[in-house]
Design goal:
transport, FluC, transmembrane helix, mainly alpha
């Protein structure tokens, strides 16, 4: 008796539900957002740049997601391109952790803990503030 291969040759791997145009939109947006973040880091290096980028990016995510889900009807690639791609690439929680490690290595563990906590609180508050800002600016009522 011959065994069947676990994966037939015809099978192609692709993330569930993803299409190539969505993946391309995310990739292009992510590249643009990462370049913006890199530029911000060059202009103002250090952990406070990362904190600022994350807060600004989270505010923008709050505005964007409110507007495209509650106010306007957009092309199906707007959310993957802008939300996941550009703003996902712009915000940088991996660099946030690396910045905290650098603070610990520089013998400032207390500041590292404050930085870690403040970033999470500020980022979440920024998303909420972005939604509230968009709601006020659009005069949206439920």
């Amino acid at each position: 008796m011959t065994e069947q291969p676990a994966f037939p040759r015809q099978a192609r791997w692709r993330p569930a539900g993803a299409s190539w145009d969505v993946l391309g939109a995310v990739a292009l947006g992510g590249a643009l957002g990462s370049l913006l973040r890199y530029g911000a880091g060059l202009a103002w290096p250090g952990p406070w740049s990362t904190l600022s980028v994350n807060v600004v990016g989270c505010f923008a995510i709050g505005v964007l997601m409110f507007v495209i889900t509650e106010v306007v009807s957009t092309h199906r690639l707007v959310r993957p391109f802008l939300g996941v791609g550009v703003l996902g690439g712009f915000t940088t929680f991996s660099t946030y952790v690396a910045d905290a490690v650098h603070l610990v290595v520089d013998h400032r563990p207390g500041l590292a803990l404050v930085y870690l906590g403040a970033t999470v609180v500020a980022a979440l508050a920024a998303v909420v503030a972005g939604v509230v800002f968009a709601r006020v600016c659009t005069g949206w009522r439920r």
